[in-house]
UniProtKB/TrEMBL annotation:
Pfam families: Host_attach (PF10116)
Database matches in InterPro entries: Host_attachment_protein
Protein name listed in UniProt: Host cell attachment superfamily protein
Length: 139
């Protein structure tokens, strides 16, 4: 029974191949920058509107933070890679270990995958060792 393990946060994603209760190998690593997604800091003046008649401007709050848009784009790119890997390699289980926000976005971007079990863990383990990832994934 082969499994694919996804460990991700807003900027990095790692895909592992596992069998039974052991990680066999790292399949691939991805960064948001390789998809052209760059986390830009928002300007402090964003949202201020000045008026031409000299009256002081007012602030309007943007509905969506640029970071949220970047996270959504990255989760869509990673979900496409996962769909390809599952189709090509016939994995029977997908284990997603991600930060809570990314986990929520992955749920939205991954459609219902037929004949595959999905396990979700809300933790940030991108910088962790394989042994720690395996401990959490197979707990």
């Amino acid at each position: 029974m082969t499994k694919i393990i996804l460990v991700m946060d807003a900027k990095f994603a790692k895909l592992y191949d596992a069998e039974g209760l052991k990680i066999k190998s790292l399949i691939s690593e991805h960064t948001s920058e390789e998809f052209g997604i760059h986390h830009k800091k928002q300007s402090l003046r964003t949202g201020f509107k000045t008026q031409s008649n000299g009256v002081g401007g007012h602030f309007f709050d943007p509905h969506t933070e640029p970071k949220d848009i970047d996270r959504a784009k990255f989760s869509k790119e990673i979900s496409e890679i996962i769909k390809e890997k599952i189709k090509d390699n016939g994995f029977s289980e997908l284990i997603i270990i991600a930060t809570p926000k990314m986990l929520s976005l992955m749920r939205k971007s991954l459609p219902k995958l037929h004949k595959i079990q999905i396990k979700e863990v809300a933790k940030d383990l991108v910088q962790s060792a394989e042994s720690q990832i395996a401990e959490v994934a197979f707990a």
